[in-house]
């Protein structure tokens, strides 16, 4: 029986540097002349140039003529160093097996962003998207590792929920048999039940917001990595958030150097973000910086816009925590401070380079009466939250949590212009396909 060929990845071949190798993948680029056929082969790990010389292998040279971009092939040949090749090595092909000749590829070098989104099922094959998705994988893996190393338990919450957690105007309503429910805006309310059993918990799952926004920073469906911890107050939960982001960046720097280079990301900036301390300031201090240093005239009680968040983060040149936003503009579960009821025990983390809010969190309110009043003011029926109020009736304790916008962190670390590139298949107000 003929021995089955052992195939290696392109990355494994490049690490060898020289040898006879068997590779398989897709045609990334192709160029032919009267004497040579050049194929840049790609797989999930890298690209490599393969050369077929007509005088050495006329049958293989002829077989390669129909090859198009994204045709699938298997090649065998001798690996040698060549500094002119895209990754510094090339394979001199002595065997070629064509698996499928691809139709003309609809994505060429010069295309509009919308065409790339229309063909996202094909564009995720690009080197740029491949690099982004690998970095995303590192980021999500780092989040699991961070919390598990600290003794947190993974805890799942329903996607179908009977009430809002982040504002009724952004709810996606879903028919639920003969009733209606909403797609999850957050894991939080159910997490607050979970801590009474498990103490410290975290989760990563899909989140839905029906925001009528067409900006480069918003998605209708995204992933949120959230945590909740019993006995934790605001000053401690903000430090956990800082530690988590630094850990994520450290992991990306350790694992994804090649991908960061493909994306032309400024690695020195990421190294700074991994090492530097992140300042914590109050909302009122933020207003003072914006109004006195940058003459932005932001009044008390106004939520910070992207422009103002960007200015603050760039002022410090590292991620910063802003706490104690005005209570009146915060969610019903964010409690007023004992020292000043106009200030809520909450925080946002703002990333520099214009990426702005990447984390939002708070200490949680323990006052049923206060939460009922605030829900009524928003037009909500407090009776829908009766099970949630049970968490205050039976063994209430101080507790806190936050959510990390996964795509926002991916965008920032990768240096992306648009958050739609931080997720394999983006969903926005204007895009629901492919």
List keywords for this structure.
alpha+beta; 2 domains; OB fold (Dihydrolipoamide Acetyltransferase, E2P); BirA Bifunctional Protein, domain 2; 434 residues; eight-stranded mixed sheet; five-stranded mixed beta barrel; 14 helices; 33% helix; single chain
What does this entry show, briefly?
With 434 residues, the protein is α+β, with helices and mostly antiparallel strands. It has 14 helices and 16 strands. The strands form three sheets. Strands 6-10-11-16-15-14-13-12 form an eight-stranded mixed sheet. It has a five-stranded mixed β-barrel with strand order 1-2-3-5-4. A three-stranded antiparallel sheet has the order 7-9-8, with no helix packed on it.
In angstroms, what is the radius of gyration?
26 Å
How many discrete domains?
Answer: 2
Number of helices: 14
> Taking all residues together, what is the mean pLDDT?
95
* Percent helix range: 25-40%
Please identify, by name, the CATH architecture of the largest domain.
Answer: 2-Layer Sandwich
What percentage of the residues does DSSP assign to strands (E)? 25-35%
Structural class: alpha+beta
**CATH first level of the largest domain: which class?**
Alpha Beta
Per the CATH scheme, the topology name of the largest domain is BirA Bifunctional Protein, domain 2
Low-confidence spans: pLDDT under 50, at least 5 residues? Answer: none
> What's the name of the CATH homologous superfamily of the largest domain?
Bira Bifunctional Protein, Domain 2
Most strands sheet: 8 strands, mixed
Shape: elongated
Element-level helix/strand string: HEEEHEEHHHEEEEHEEHHHEHHEEEHHEH
């Amino acid at each position: 029986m003929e021995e089955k060929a052992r195939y290696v990845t392109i990355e494994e071949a490049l690490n060898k540097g020289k040898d006879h190798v068997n590779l398989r993948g897709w045609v990334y680029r192709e160029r032919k002349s009267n004497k040579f056929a050049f194929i840049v082969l790609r797989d999930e790990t890298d690209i490599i140039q393969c050369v077929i010389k007509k005088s050495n292998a006329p049958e293989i040279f002829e077989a390669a003529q129909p090859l198009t971009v994204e045709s699938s092939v298997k090649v065998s040949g001798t690996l040698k160093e060549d500094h002119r090749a895209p990754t510094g090595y090339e394979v001199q092909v002595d065997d070629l097996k064509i698996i499928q000749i691809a139709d003309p590829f609809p994505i060429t070098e010069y295309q509009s962003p919308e065409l790339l989104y229309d063909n996202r099922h094909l564009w995720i094959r690009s080197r740029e998207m491949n690099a982004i998705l690998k970095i995303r994988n590192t980021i999500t893996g780092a989040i699991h590792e961070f919390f598990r190393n600290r003794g947190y338990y993974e805890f799942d919450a329903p996607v179908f929920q009977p009430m809002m957690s982040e504002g009724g105007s952004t709810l996606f309503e879903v028919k639920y048999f003969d009733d209606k429910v909403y797609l999850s805006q957050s894991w939080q309310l159910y997490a607050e039940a979970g801590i009474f059993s498990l103490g410290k918990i975290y989760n990563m799952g899909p989140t839905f917001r029906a925001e009528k926004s067409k900006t480069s920073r918003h998605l209708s469906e995204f992933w949120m990595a959230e945590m909740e911890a019993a006995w934790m107050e605001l000053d401690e939960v903000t430090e956990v958030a800082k530690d988590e982001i630094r850990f994520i960046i450290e992991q990306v720097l350790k694992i994804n150097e090649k991908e960061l280079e493909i994306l032309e990301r400024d690695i020195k900036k990421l190294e700074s973000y991994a090492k530097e301390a992140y300042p914590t300031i109050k909302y009122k201090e933020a207003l003072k910086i914006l109004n006195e240093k940058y003459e932005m005239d932001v009044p008390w009680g106004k939520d910070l816009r992207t422009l103002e968040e960007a200015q603050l983060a760039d002022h410090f040149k590292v991620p910063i925590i802003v706490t104690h936003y005005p209570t009146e503009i915060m969610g019903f579960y964010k409690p007023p401070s004992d020292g000043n009821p106009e200030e809520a025990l909450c925080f946002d983390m703002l990333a520099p380079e214009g990426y702005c809010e990447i984390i939002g969190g708070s200490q949680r309110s323990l006052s049923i009466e206060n939460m009922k009043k605030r829900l009524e003011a928003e037009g909500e029926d407090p009776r829908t939250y009766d099970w949630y109020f049970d968490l205050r009736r039976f063994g209430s304790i101080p507790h806190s949590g936050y959510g990390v916008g996964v795509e926002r962190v991916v965008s920032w670390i990768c240096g992306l212009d648009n958050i739609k590139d931080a997720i394999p298949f983006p969903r926005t107000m204007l895009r629901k396909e492919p």
